[in-house]
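Encode chain A's predicted structure.
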Amino acid sequence: MTNAYQILECVLLEIEENIKNKINAASLAKSAAMSSVHLQRLFRLAFEQPIASYIRSRKLAASLESLLKTNFRVVDIAEEYGFDYERSYIRAFKREFGFTPSEVRLSGRILKIVPPLQLIEKNKMGDGLFFGSELVMVPTFDVVGRLYKVPFAQSIEMAPRVAKDFWDNDRETIENRMGDDIYIGLTYYPEQITDFSYYLPSVPVTNLKNIPEKLHTYTFAASLCAKFHYIGQHHYLELNENVAKEMYQAIGEYHNSKDAVYSLINRREHFERIDKNDYDGVFCKMEWFTPVIKK
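Encoded structure for chain A:
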């Protein structure tokens, strides 16, 4: 079976090679031998943008060559890059750049364009993909879950097992949970240095009232975080210790990079987030967040 990396690598190449043709998700999916729905979901999971928007942005960026280096009419440039109508091209151009093609020709403005997306070897993770890091601001949120004291040596092995146990047995008892789709696996550390951490398989809640007996609450304070995400060609319940090991290795490489502007805050807290709606029968997604400080 072709894996996610190979699919997306071929799709990105095909977009660039056919930038002047009428390409869309359906034609790309046909080449990738998969459904258009699955390709669109995979692209959005990986790059967090719709494939149609990316194609349009790349076409508009490429069209600047003809617009600024030739005397071609706008209508001819629109046709050259696969737009059905001149008006469609002008409207899309103005949304992308803030000016019409004619205004750009006359003004000599410098424009910011969307460059080609690229996959690199570091994105490979088994049959899946790993991306990061992005800098995001995570707002304050509350969770309720079952607390585990986990020795460091067992943390990677234990997390998937207790997560499934919580989801199957405790989640339904939490009445004020925010829907039935989001899982939060939160790790935090004792104030004193020890050889264990706390792991809280949990769900986000609207408030901290009426908490079931023996379950635990936690408030994650608003924090600047590094965000990583993993795309797997399997069910989200098949996220296992092998995936976790590779993720932590990749995150560790980021943490130890001399080029990183921000560094991870050690021994504070971090969490993984899974939205079961992201699973489309083929691909799943897991996000991982950890607070950072500027070096």
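The CA atoms of residues 16 and 55 lie 9 Å apart.
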